[in-house]
From TrEMBL:
Protein name, per record: Amino acid permease
GO CC annotation, single: plasma membrane
Membrane topology value: Multi-pass membrane protein
UniProt KW Cell membrane keyword: yes
Subcellular location: Cell membrane
Highest taxon above the source species: Bacteria
Organism: Pseudomonas turukhanskensis
Pfam family, one: AA_permease_2
Transmembrane residue ranges: 12-33, 45-64, 84-111, 117-137, 149-169, 189-206, 226-245, 272-292, 313-336, 348-368, 380-399, 405-427
């Protein structure tokens, strides 16, 4: 039987995770977070980072216990029950299926602000069409494009921060180090929590490295360390960048919150830098959307192959050896971007993430504390209190989401319960188990 080679080190896995998170997204969503928090974006990222660290710890514990691909789906299925595992997978599917939509919507919003004569819908359709075509042709072409463009977004992110520092340093009335970006008279806890619920969108993907289990040296040690390091490094990047951007633009007034970073880029660097920034952001969104659509289509294909979704449609490959039906379906789903704004679309995706995160925290308690009976003093902290804090934080963030996003999220969850009932004959049978190793 063919096996993947274990060639990845801790550093390689961490770099993959950071790249998957697309750090430049902190600029893409800055305006939305600024208006939501009342000008305290760094505070939202601090809250989000703390909540995500507790959840990342739970992922790390479960990755050590079950060094297999499948992430939340596998952990909940093995630790609690196959049926609840299916619902965890259904929540993760929401992220995978709708993430390309949100990515392309953010990119389209910035292009529409740069070229107001062209409707935003045109840019959305262009993103969907080009990325779908590339992914249909195959991953080799997609990976070649991704590697060439990934460096650009990191250069833009560094340039943006440097120009923010230069802009603030040139103003004698502003201090470079101050708590104002975190606290001001207009900021209240519900506003920060609402912002943190959106800010967690930037952390999506910290758990994606669990899919590299079969290709990593000593996965029981390496993957848990990588998950925690990715969350820490990603959180540090988001807090630092948002701090300097908030310092350079303390106001919450924007022509368009969805594309606010363009206005800030103009203030700190002029017309030339706006062009440079826009290129970097669109490159970042394009490469991220390319990867997200590819990942989603492979998950749908795997679910079809294993009988979790209808095999006739999802388990078919096209002439290029790619799951064409699944790729095209992701593109069709992304058409919802024509009717949603960035806030609702990112919040909708976060609903699925928070649901999956909550179940993983619960899985730690079941696997170690309840079933494993690890109940000493140290275990009380590690396997009960920490996951409970993560669980409460995730649920609190979930109810802080945009109301429409909560309604859409609950609708998605209801569909999952109905489909699970049909799949299991009214919950009398166990659902089919996915074999991620073959993916």
């Amino acid at each position: 039987m063919a096996r993947l080679q274990r060639t990845l080190s801790l550093g390689s896995v961490v770099l993959f995770g950071i790249a998957y998170m697309t750090p430049i997204i902190v600029l893409g969503t800055f305006g939305i977070l600024s208006t939501t928090t009342g000008g305290a974006v760094p505070s939202a990222y601090v809250v989000a980072a703390i909540a995500m660290l507790f959840t990342a710890f739970s992922y790390a514990r479960m990755a050590a216990a079950f060094p297999v691909a499948g992430s939340a789906y596998s952990y909940v299925r093995k630790a609690i029950s196959p049926k609840l595992g299916f619902l965890a997978g259904w929540a993760v599917l929401l992220d995978y299926l709708f993430l390309p939509m949100a990515i392309w919507l953010i990119g389209a919003a910035y292009l529409a602000s740069a070229f107001p004569a062209i409707p935003q819908a045109v840019w959305v359709l262009a993103f969907i069409g080009v990325t779908t075509l590339i992914n249909v042709v195959g991953l080799k072409l997609a990976n070649t494009i991704n590697i060439g463009l990934m460096l650009v977004q990191f250069l833009v992110l560094v340039a943006f921060v440097v120009l923010c520092i230069h802009y603030v340093a040139g103003d004698a009335t502003q201090a470079l180090w101050t708590l104002k970006p975190f606290f001001n008279g207009d900021v209240h806890l519900p506003m920060v929590m609402g912002g943190a619920a959106i800010a967690c969108y930037s952390f999506l993907g910290f758990d994606a490295v669990s899919t590299l289990t079969e290709e990593t040296h000593e996965p029981r040690k390496t993957i848990p360390k990588a998950i925690l390091l990715i969350t820490l490094i990603g959180g540090a990047i988001f807090i630092a960048v948002s701090y300097f951007v908030q310092l350079a633009h303390p106001s919450i007034e924007f022509q368009s919150p969805d594309s606010a970073a363009t206005e800030i880029a103009l203030n700190i660097g002029g017309d030339l830098f706006v062009t440079f920034f826009l290129i970097g952001l669109i490159v970042g969104q394009f490469t991220s959307g390319l990867s997200a659509q590819a990942s989603a289509s492979r998950l749908l294909f795997a679910m079809g192959r294993d009988g979790v979704l209808p095999q006739g449609f999802f388990a078919r490959l096209g002439r290029f050896g790619t799951p064409v039906n699944s790729i095209v379906l992701c593109g069709v789903v992304a058409l919802l971007a024509l009717k949603l704004d960035v806030t609702t679309s990112t919040s909708f995706i976060n609903f699925g993430a928070f649901l999956a995160f909550s179940l993983v925290n619960l899985a730690v308690i079941f696997h170690y504390w309840i079933n494993g009976e690890k109940r000493g003093g140290r275990e009380l902290l590690l396997f009960l209190l920490c996951p409970l804090v993560g669980l409460v934080a995730d649920l609190w963030l979930m109810i802080s989401l945009d109301h429409l996003a909560i309604i859409l999220g609950l609708s998605w969850l209801s569909l999952g319960v109905i489909y699970l009932a049909a799949l299991t004959g009214g919950f009398r049978r166990q659902p089919p188990e996915m074999d991620f190793n073959e993916a």
